Amino acid sequence: MKKVLVISLGGSVIVPDKIDFVFLDKFKKLLEKHSRKFKFVIVCGGGSIARKYIDALVKEGADAENISEAGMRATRMNALFLMQFFGKRANSHLPKDMIDVRNNLFKNDFVLCGALRYSPDETSDGTAAKLAHFLKTDFINITNVDGLYTKDPKVFKDAKFIPSESWSDFKARISKMKFKAGQHFVLDQQAATIIMNYRIKTIIVDKDIENLGRLLAQKPFKGTILAG
């Protein structure tokens, strides 16, 4: 029986400015290499495309629900693209809910999805965390930084890397941030609450393919583990 892993693939990783073909090609080949042992659920973020839609709607004075739905559509568009990119071993239609995701795992090694439904403050990280709980498995969050830091390492040179942190400490750390649709952080408040409440082992890593390979091979890797 193959183990299922849920991966939240940040939109900023899929489409930082234009589609990152080199990363996606290596990512696909890496998961194919490890598909003898794992099945993968990949929840796609909206990234720069979502933020562009959201920024325009905010300027236009759209309400919160319409702004969130624009972000959701971007995640689904990215998922549809990656379904084609992964080919015949991936699902052929977008899942509409968590049961649909689980059913697709019976016949596919790779199940791609975006946002599953609208609810206030819903995020792709939150969707991935819910799926990890539903499928009773670990949660890997791939973003554009190599883990959690005390400060933004791209802004502060004295930022210190955090290799591990408890669920409750992490939740307290990011609860100080204000939610907004399309926000960009290593893991958002909704996901933090879910992984803490359901005690889901969560790993935050960047898109370094060699490092991801070590993680999947259960070898030493660089990243932040949230547990305990």
Protein architecture, described:
This protein has 9 helices and 9 strands. The protein is an alpha/beta fold and 228 residues long. It has a single domain (9-226), classed as Acetylglutamate kinase-like (Carbamate kinase). The chain starts with a strand and ends with a strand.
Spell out the blueprint of helices and strands.
Elements: E1 3-9, H1 11-14, H2 21-33, E2 38-44, H3 47-60, H4 64-86, H5 98-105, E3 110-113, H6 124-135, E4 139-142, E5 148-149, E6 161-162, E7 164-165, H7 167-174, H8 189-198, E8 202-205, H9 209-216, E9 224-226
Parallel strand pairs: 1-2, 1-4, 2-3, 4-8, 7-9
Antiparallel strand pairs: 5-6, 8-9
Helix pairs in contact: 3-4, 6-8, 7-8
CATH homologous superfamily descriptor: Acetylglutamate kinase-like
Number of strands: 9
Q: Which structural class matches the secondary elements? A: alpha/beta
Unreliable spans are none
Estimate the mean pLDDT confidence.
Answer: 90
Neighbour order of strands in the largest sheet: 3-2-1-4-8-9-7
Order of helices and strands: EHHEHHHEHEEEEHHEHE
CATH fold assignment:
Carbamate kinase
Which CATH top level class fits?
Alpha Beta
Q: What share of the residues does DSSP label as strand, in percent?
A: 15-25%
Shape: globular
Helical fraction equals 40-55%
CATH second-level architecture? 3-Layer(aba) Sandwich
- Whole-number tally of structural domains: 1
Radius of gyration equals 17 Å
Total helix count?
9
The first-to-last residue Cα distance is 27 Å
Largest sheet properties: 7 strands, mixed
